[in-house]
Specification:
Length: 160
């Protein structure tokens, strides 16, 4: 597994987190013979205290969550996802990769393979609001983002 941290600055319309970086885990989970890592990502997130909430895709508009952090795993397929807002980096992710997004981290789908499956997880008891870039009271959102409780761990540990 390769781990990369990416610091994202406040873009105005997307606050990003004031202290914590996005963490990209390349090859976080093994891909099985059918080309998917969905079950392995479910197990990885669960083992790290991040209950899986959904299997789906990523919205094609920039959004973020002000009240909680989010873990996204690529269960199948591949995608290009922009993080941090309209001027943020576009990262290529593929089956088995995972991304840990601190509260306030903007993200949107740029393009995806037709078989894309994303595994979404949040810390226990999380209230995952959805805020579109540029919407809401900016000062109130920034306060909520900074106040989001620390997740069970600051990263994902591989399962034995």
């Amino acid at each position: 597994m390769k781990i990369e941290t990416i610091r994202l600055a406040d873009s105005g319309e997307v606050p990003n987190h004031p202290r914590w970086s996005l963490i990209l885990y390349t090859r976080a989970a093994p891909v099985d013979a059918s080309g998917t890592a969905t079950a392995a990502l479910d197990a990885l997130f669960d083992a790290n205290g991040w209950p899986v909430s959904w299997h789906d895709g990523i919205y094609r508009f920039t959004h973020f969550h002000s009240l909680t952090h989010e873990a996204l795993g690529i269960g199948a397929g591949s995608a290009r996802v922009q993080f941090g807002g309209e001027s943020g980096p576009i990262l290529a992710v593929a089956a088995g990769d995972a991304v840990l997004l601190p509260s306030g981290t903007g993200h949107k789908l740029i393009e995806a393979s037709s078989d894309l499956i994303v595994v979404g997880a949040y810390p226990p008891g999380a209230d995952y609001d959805l805020v579109r870039a540029g919407e809401g009271d900016a000062d109130q959102l920034r306060r909520a983002i900074a106040a989001a409780p620390s997740p069970p761990c600051r990263g994902l540990r591989a399962i034995p």
